[in-house]
Prior knowledge:
Layout: H1 14-17, H2 21-38, E1 55-56, H3 69-81, H4 98-109, E2 114-118, H5 121-132, E3 138-142, H6 147-156, E4 159-163, H7 168-178, E5 182-186, H8 198-207, E6 211-215, H9 230-233, E7 242-246, E8 256-260, H10 262-271, H11 273-276, H12 283-297, H13 300-319, E9 331-337, H14 339-351, E10 354-355, E11 357-359, E12 369-374, H15 381-393, H16 404-414
Parallel strand pairs: 1-10, 3-4, 3-5, 5-6, 6-7
Antiparallel strand pairs: 2-8, 7-8, 9-12, 11-12
Helix pairs in contact: 3-12, 4-12, 5-6, 13-15
Amino acid sequence: xSIASHIHVPISPRAEHCLPDYITQRMDAHHxxxxxxxxxxxxxxxxxxxxxxAIFLAGNDYLDxxxxxxxxxxxxxxxxxxxxxxxxxAVYLQEGSAQHRLESRLAHFMGAEDGILAQSGxxxxxxxxxxxxxxxxxVYLDMQAHASLWEGVxxxxxxxxxxxxNDMSHLQRQVLxxxxxxxVVDALYSTNGSLAPLLELLDIAExxxxxxxxxxxxxLGTHGPGGAGLVVEWGLEHRVHFRTASLAKAFxxxxxxISCSSRFKGYFLSESRPAIFxxxxxxxxxxxxxxxxxxxxxxxxxxxxxxxxxxxxxxxxSELGYNVSDGTEQIIALEAGGEPATLALRQALERxxxxxxxxxxxxxxxxxxxxxxxxxxxxxxxxxxxxxAGCAAIRGxxxxxxxxxxxxLRKLALV
Length: 415
């Protein structure tokens, strides 16, 4: 037995007890006001281990590739061949490195001149906005744009200017008021599966000399020819200045990507703090993405299955009275409203073997919590019917008729 195994480190709350009140008050607001009083001691993101028969709809592996033998094998082979790696910032990688080769492949896949791999989608978005915005520069963000994009604006000390979700008239008014800047949207929004109106947005951007950033995290791999994304599907790759993506979705790995010009890449690697102060990707991570890219290009059948599941489930939920009209794609939001009602919805679904993800503030507006059902190509028709049967069975239990989203749907029907 090693000496270290005899070492006992006592667990003491003393350090936490010394925290100042401006921290403890915020902790109390979470643990006491929110978890204990509002939610009865139940955490909105905690669930029991899923049983074997459960339908798990809380992941982002849209094409069901995480356990694909060819991809796993490529990663294992890379690990077995490794003789140790030089861990350093990607800034210092020499031209022609494995990471640079993969960046070029991904850029070509997306119809871009060049690209940059980052540690995550968060790092990609924060780093990019540090480099394209700056103090006083207005950055126009859709109100449902991913939190990492808002964080990037804060990091750049730029001026965040929100516009109503997918409301191009409001965007136009904001640009006229604040002047040229950067317009930032998700191609496919992660909370409700809606698509950005990119054609109209680009017309506004070009009329006012604005830079456009499109986050393709939830559309890269699932949309477009060979999975190249919505910007390519709509033929807009020469009009959108930058695209970003988390590769933890359809690519089922752990990295982020930015499409850009080669000249911008050189500037980015010298100015972006996430790039400078993060290490490069490891060889087995690169091997995964190399294999995943080849697989995804050929995955038309899986993309078709995902679209078919999406249509069937959205149509079935609409027939059952659920308001899923905000979106059209593989991310489906069941919006119960407040957090207690949403937690009750999630638990009711779980009793029917359906495991979705509860989204609440700050991922959503305070009173617009929801359960997100994320579909994937690994589901079969029987699973889709089970989801619909479960949603039908709980309508009364979860007071569907009282949801604010249901009331909005009734108002739309009267217009």
